[in-house]
Amino acid sequence: MTADYSCPDCGTGPELDHGRPGYRLDGASAGLSLSLSRSRGWALLAAGRGLGTDSSGPAATVGIDLEHSSGVVFPGFDDVVLTPAERQVLAGLPLDRAPLWRTAAWSRKEALLKARGTGLRVDPASVEAFVEPPGTTLLDLDTAALGLPAGFAAALALVGAV
Q1: What is the pLDDT of residues 120-136, one digit of tens each?
Q2: Strand bridging mode 136-141 / 152-159
Q3: Which pLDDT value is given to residue 52?
């Protein structure tokens, strides 16, 4: 089994060092979809068997993201990351709920963009974090149940899942 990356711009192959991670077995896709996220010394890995790309084209893919609220508290974050509708929702939230809401929005966007295979080549302000596109499942993960300290948000996206 060899590591293999897939980039929508550069293609697929063991010579790539970026893009969606995967594995090849005997020269063919091992049928795995993988996604990794790290934040403040913690990591989450999502893996799906029978996912990835086969001879008929892209199948279901996974994306996972883990974020800490300290990473979304900086001037200009809202303008760079949030859609106009999301900024409107944020404006109506109590101040104490805003940091974790921003963190959840960012985590959902990154998980979705990873599952799509585009990553941040797509403007995050063009992606609605709380709207599930057709053919997509987007889940908020229970960070306390995962054993993470307070202040984290995590999301899992499945694109093309049945």
Answers
A1: 888 999 999 999 888 89
A2: antiparallel
A3: 45
Angle between helices 84-91 and 98-116 (to 10 degrees): 160
Is the model's pLDDT at 57 over the cut of 50? no
139 and 108 in contact (C-beta within 8 Å)?
A: no
Helices (H), the chain: 77-81, 84-91, 98-116
Question: In Å, how far are 50, 55, 127, 136, 138 from 29, measured between CA atoms?
Answer: 10, 9, 29, 22, 25
User: Is residue 125 helix, strand or coil?
Assistant: helix
The more confident residue out of 22 and 46 is 46
104-105-109-111 Cα dihedral, nearest 10 degrees:
10
Return d(Cα 28, Cα 84) in angstroms, integer: 43
DSSP track, 89-121: HHHTS-TTTHHHHHHHHHHHHHHHHHHHT-GGG
Burial readout 75-85 (b: 16 or more C-beta within 10 A, e: otherwise): eeebeebbbee
pLDDT of residue 50: 60
pLDDT of residue 101: 96
What is the model's pTM?
A: 0.84
* Tokens at 109, concatenated: 């966007």
The DSSP bridge pattern shows strands 11-13 and 28-29 to be unpaired
